[in-house]
Amino acid sequence: MAKAKTEALEMIKKLPDDVTTGAIMEQLLFKQQVEKGLQDMAEGRVLTHEELKVRIAR
Asked: What was the pLDDT predicted at 1?
């Protein structure tokens, strides 16, 4: 948990001083989604382009 807090604080420090709370939340959510996607890839939870096209067609 301490690592997540440290990473979030570092990300926030890099934002401009006039950043809104909403923009901070968007950045945190984006970071979370990217991390989830990378974890999914590492654990093999991925679809090929063709598999995705089939799913969308349904």
From this structure: 62
Q: Which of 26, 23, 27 is nearest to 10 (CA)?
A: 27
- Contact call for residues 2 and 14 (beta carbons, < 8 A): no
What's the whole-model pTM score? 0.75
Q: State in Å, rounded, how far the first CA of the chain is from the last one.
A: 40
Instruction: Evaluate whether 33 touches 53 at the Cβ level (below 8 Å).
Output: no
DSSP assignment of 1-58: -HHHHHHHHHHHHTS-TT--HHHHHHHHHHHHHHHHHHHHHHTT----HHHHHHHHH-
